[in-house]
Amino acid sequence: MSKAKTLDDALKGHDPDTIIRGKIEAQFAAMRAVGPEEWDEEPDFCSKAQKISLKTIVPYREVYKSHVAIAPPKGDRAAKVLWFADPKFASKFRDKTAKKTS
Q1: DSSP of 47-73, one letter per residue?
Q2: What's the rounded Cα separation, in Å, for the pair 21 and 63?
Q3: Mean pLDDT computed over 97-102
Q4: Which residues 6+ apart lie within 8 Å of 19 measured at CB?
Q5: At what angle do helices 16-34 and 7-14 cross, to 10 degrees?
Q6: By three-state DSSP, how is residue 2 classified?
């Protein structure tokens, strides 16, 4: 006899928000397996997180703001969004870059 299906099963399979959050959490887990200081620029993070689109990820920056930092522009290069495995290191990055830009 198979296990009864749950609401959680339905959400994981059909609710876009639950699916995206699951992909993001899985990518954080994969990054932590590499090391706590692991980070990716947003396009790479999205690609590795089971191909979340750049358009889709934007509202999740706020949801996961403790994991997100902005690398300030440098020369002709635009600012970049970075996603960190561990919020502690995102905070350290924000602190260090804030001191250099102020």
Answers
A1: HHTTS--HHHHHHHHHHTGGGEEEEPP
A2: 9
A3: 73
A4: 12, 13
A5: 80
A6: coil
Taking the domains of the chain in order of start, what are their residue ranges? 7-101
Determine the Cα–Cα distance for residues 42 and 24; give it in Å rounded to an integer: 12
pLDDT bracket for residue 99 (50, 70, 90): confident
Return the closest-CA partner of residue 39 out of 64, 21, 16, 19: 64
Edge to edge, what strands does the sheet with 39-41 contain? Answer: 39-41, 80-84, 68-71
Tokens 């002709």 found at: 76
Contacts for 4 with CB less than 8 Å, ≥ 6 apart = none
Q: What is the pLDDT of residues 22-59, one digit of tens each?
A: 999 999 999 999 999 999 999 999 999 998 999 999 99
